[in-house]
Amino acid sequence: MAGPLLTASVVLAALVLTLLAPRLLPRWEALRRLPGPALLLWQSVGVSGVACALLAAPVAVRTTGLAQPLLLGLALALSVLMLARLLLSGHRVGTDLRRRRAKHRQLIDLVGGRLHGATAQVATQVARPPGVSVIAEGNPTAYCLPGRQRRIVLTQAALDRLDAPQLRAVLAHEQGHLDARHDLLLELFTVMHEAVPPPLRVQAAMGEVHLLTEALADRIAEQRTGHTELARALVAMAGTGSTEVTTRIRLLARPPAALAARAAVTVLALLVLALPCAVAVLAWL
Fold first, then answer.
1. Cα 63 to Cα 240: distance, rounded to the nearest angstrom
2. What is the pLDDT of residues 87-109, one digit of tens each?
3. For a designed S-S bond to 166, which of 105, 132, 154, 162 qualifies (C-beta 3.0 to 4.6 A apart)?
4. What are the boundaries of the signal sequence (predicted)?
């Protein structure tokens, strides 16, 4: 009886972590005040859900064999489907992402300029080599291009709108993304998100992860340049009303979450991450 129960448990855990948790976590808005531990929790949920799905078949074969054909068939179907979709999603997302970044980088090299004068001095205080590129066209925008030839890109409209402290805050925010390698984090989430069949995906989950990465970069920039400068920069860059920017400004206005809350979410993330490990150990004992 222990074998079928363990198999059913790992199948249920996979379904809960991949289908239910992404619908519930975005509603836990208190996590936005501690974006670092919150992103760790999101990663733990995603990785553990995938791991449980992949473990379902081996656990079923190990613990039930042919004694429970329906349960064995369900576990096999879940593991095979997850493995196939995960490999396809990883190849497609990784290939497309790197191709688009390479084209974008080539375009910036062709049309982008460099900062000069006082603005260049501001950039050197924040951005690491290869520095900042400026494009003439477009709305007030700032973003980063990660990779071996990483850089920060600004539009001229952004430079016209920002004063020196605000520019320093914007550059610190983008440098925070680069230093923390948020591109790899978002790529991981995208691969796991697209590994789920389209009718079952939760777009709110990807939106929440993006918001948390922005909130974490805001915290990094706030530490490097100050709260007021960053808030003013967000308002200046937002232009027309933006729900995400409004949320980020509200988060900046609140004090960081208490150490106890950060520790509790971190422990929860570690417990979730330990779940597939515990299942594997129990199956092979």
1. 59
2. 999 999 999 999 998 898 888 88
3. 162
4. none
Secondary structure of 245-271 as H, E, C letters: HHHHHHHHHCCCCCHHHHHHHHHHHHH
The interaxial angle of helices 164-180 and 227-238, nearest 10 deg, is 90
Cβ 256 vs Cβ 219: under 8 Å:
yes
Residue 144 φ/ψ region, left for φ over 0, alpha for ψ in the -120 to 50 degree band, beta for the rest: beta
Question: How many structural domains are present in the chain?
Answer: 1
User: What is the identity of the amino acid at 139?
Assistant: N
pLDDT of residue 45: 96
Per DSSP bridges, beta strands 132-135 and 113-114 are antiparallel
Tens-place pLDDT, residues 42-63: 999 999 999 999 999 999 988 8
Alpha-carbon dihedral of residues 94, 97, 103, 109, nearest 10 degrees?
-110
Please count the other Cβ atoms lying within 10 Å of the Cβ belonging to residue 194.
Answer: 18
Q: Which two tokens stand for residue 4?
A: 């079928």
On the CB side of 124, CA atoms within 13 Å amount to 8
- Confidence at residue 82, expressed as pLDDT on a 0 to 100 scale: 95
Tokens 């493995």 locate to 83
**CA nearest neighbour of 201 among 11, 12, 23, 14:** 23
What tokens does 276 get? Answer: 């597939």
Task: Check: CB of residue 186 under 8 Å from CB of residue 217.
Answer: no
How high is the pLDDT of residue 49?
A: 95
Do residues 182 and 147 lie in contact, with contact meaning Cβ atoms separated by under 8 Å?
no
User: What mean pLDDT comes out for the span 242-254?
Assistant: 85
Supply the range of the domain harboring residue 34.
Answer: 2-284
